[in-house]
Amino acid sequence: MDNLSLVEIIDRTRLVSDVPNPILPFCCPIPDGNLRPGSLITVYGTCPTNQGRFRIDLYASNCQHCRSDDGKTSVYDPAKRIVALHFNGRFNEAKDGSSYVVMNSFHNGKWDQDERSTVFPFQPEQPFCMMILIEEQRFRIYIDGGERPHYQFEHRFSGEKLLRQDLVGFENCVERIVPKMDADKFAALVSFAYNLGCGSLEQSTLAKYARAHNYRGAANEFPKWCHAGGKVLQGLVRRRAAERALFCKSGGC
Predict the structure, then answer these.
(1) Per-residue CA distances from 84 to 56, 112, 139 (Å)
(2) With 196 labelled, which of 50, 67, 86, 92 sits at a CA distance of 20 to 30 A?
(3) For each successive 10 residues of the chain (253 residues), what is the average pLDDT?
(4) Is Lyase one of the keywords (predicted)?
(5) How confident is the model over 126-179, as pLDDT tens digits?
(6) Can you say whether residue 102 is alpha, beta or left, with left for phi > 0 and alpha for psi between -120 and 50 degrees?
(7) What pLDDT shows up at residue 1?
(8) Beta-strand runs (E) in the chain
(9) Which residues of 71-97 are buried (b: 16+ CB within 10 A; e: fewer)?
């Protein structure tokens, strides 16, 4: 995609979900469960004058503001915190009073090396539009429709490697919560737990039905878990439908 303009990139993407006017701080699962090369995230915001900083983080794990479907139970596990991209705009914090942007990542319990940029197109009390394009090797970040990226941030770890490592923990928790499932039901529950957290699965009616071998009842629980920020997200609707289909593939529903 290196030679494509932003207009051409947008023409090749499609709107997966939209969350208007979220309450801050806001945490939302990525529709379909992950990001892949070609994915585009658009953030509209306004910087208030009384806020010296703002941040946008892309987590490869649940964030500290994530809640289960009841909106009350935290699904955050600080021991598994992974931030693939941390974007932090800082107003007037340099020694000379100028503003700058910090980008970083968090993995293995610590922040990596800061990358700083004095490119700063943000203004207090002014709206902005940020587009984050995911590529094979990097994030490209565009502000207010510029055809060329204002910022680039190289990926610092392999998403595939992290996924394999992370899945082991979710497989173990599913085996503990709902033991002795066949391969298809087990895989569906691992996908569910990976997206929503083991705590959500453990406290769910879905797990209760599955443990009782009421597979039809369990299957009917999947569609209930498709909300983020109090709204139904179509990406989560599709993911829950795929998990339900996999859960029922070997029968019993």
Answers:
(1) 11, 11, 10
(2) 86
(3) 38 49 72 64 82 84 52 55 89 92 90 95 91 86 88 79 61 91 92 86 95 97 87 86 94 92
(4) no
(5) 899 999 988 878 899 999 977 789 999 998 876 555 555 556 778 888 999 999
(6) beta
(7) 35
(8) 40-46, 53-59, 83-90, 100-107, 110-111, 115-117, 127-134, 138-143, 151-154, 227-228, 231-232
(9) eeeebbeeebbbbbbbbbbbbeeeeee
- Residues 220-251 as b/e (b if ≥16 CB within 10 A, e otherwise) read ebbeebbebeeeebebbbbbbeebbebbbeee
223: its two tokens: 């569609």
Domains defined along the chain, listed by start: 6-154 (2.60.120.200), 159-248 (1.10.530.40)
Beta pairing, strands 115-117 & 138-143: unpaired
Residues recorded for the chain: 253
Q: Which residue has the tokens 């983020």?
A: 228
Task: Tell me the residue type at 25.
Answer: P
Output the six-digit token pair for 133. 């394009």
Instruction: Supply the pTM of this predicted model.
Output: 0.57
Burial of 253 (0-12, 13-18, 19+ CB in 10 A): middle
